[in-house]
Amino acid sequence: MRMPTVGITCYPSQGGSGVVATELGLHLARRGCEVHFISSHLPFRLQGYDRNIMHHKVEMPSYPVFEHSPYTLSLASAMADVARRCNLDLLHVHYAIPHAASAYLARQMLLPHRVPVITTLHGTDITLVGKEPSFFPITRFVIEQSDAVTAVSKFLKDETVRVFDCGRDIEVIPNFVDTRVFRPRPDHELRARFAPDGRFLVLHASNFRRVKNTPAVIETFDAVRRQAPAALLLVGEGPELPAVRREVAARGLEDRVHFLGHFDRLEDILPVADALLLPSWHESFGLVALEAMACGVVPVATSRGGAGEFIVDGHNGFLREPDDVEGMAGALLELARDPAQRAHMAEVGQRDAATDFGAGCVVRRYLDLYERLLGAGRPVDPLGG
Ligand code: GMT
Predict the structure, then answer these.
(1) CATH topology of domain 188-356
(2) Which of 122, 156, 158 to mutate to test the pocket of ligand 1 (most atoms within 8 A of CB)?
(3) If you average pLDDT over residues 65-79, what whole number do you get?
């Protein structure tokens, strides 16, 4: 019984879709699949050598005639080339634009040999970028043309059907967390560095884009620290970071807000926090909130989008409207003032994350999908689960 040889394409930089694609590849490789990452750079969570994982860098030659190097075409060529040389059974692309278009081209180039294309929709590829008039028709086309389409939440599936008026099957396969990696790790020394007097520790981690609603992070934290001793950890980098720095200075919060920048191993810092704040204008899923739950960190997250598919308000976290600064501050203060309640919610969250969104069962669902696409007669996981 042969496990499938899978080509995975994603954005290799920081961002949830790259994280999910990389973690999926790592788990598939652990289960015996040969996994070929085809991307512009090595995905950031892919470290160390794994005999079942290979990376193929997409070469993008510059030429004076090109105003912009045509990444989509270079990627399509690389996909077709890797598929031929390495006998890929399927191409699994993460984030529709332009990866699903490149995969469509590669599939056509490979005919008459048929290599199925799976497109996993992550969020802004549908909710923001895909709606742009210049991308809308091609996004719709490649969604229709993919052999299978998955969405990381029911919210995103419904949005895709609504926005693109699309009648095809879209399977919801939620994001997942590796609970062996994301787990509570008491580190009193590290905690004491940021919260020397036992202050309440709030963490925000993102790519600091507008959709993350970072002004609300600072405003909410400011409201909290006026009523309880608190500190804020900011993890990540992005275009909104300079504005965040200015706002922190303007409010005189420099001694309470720690800018940690971007680093690959979020699991090293996440567990040190008491609560995660994610007030995005929307999140199709909000992976970092799930990772926080797995670490025993209580999320206070946006109610717009798919976070409500794993956060149950008042049970394992809090859901608030992104412009409800008072409501988010209230939720954080409730946690700051009642450590017993916080500990209980953290415990429930940890259990919910592991039970329903653990890597084991979610990766199994991708394997089931591969199996269906490659032919019912060919089971693809000898470990069976
Ligand atoms: O738009 C982003 O924030 C980046 C994007 C990405 O490339 O990872 O994130 C989306 O995909 C993640 C993984 O599936 C989801 O957890 C995020 O909720 C989603 N972002 C948005 O919907 C804003």
Answers:
(1) Rossmann fold (3.40.50)
(2) 122
(3) 93
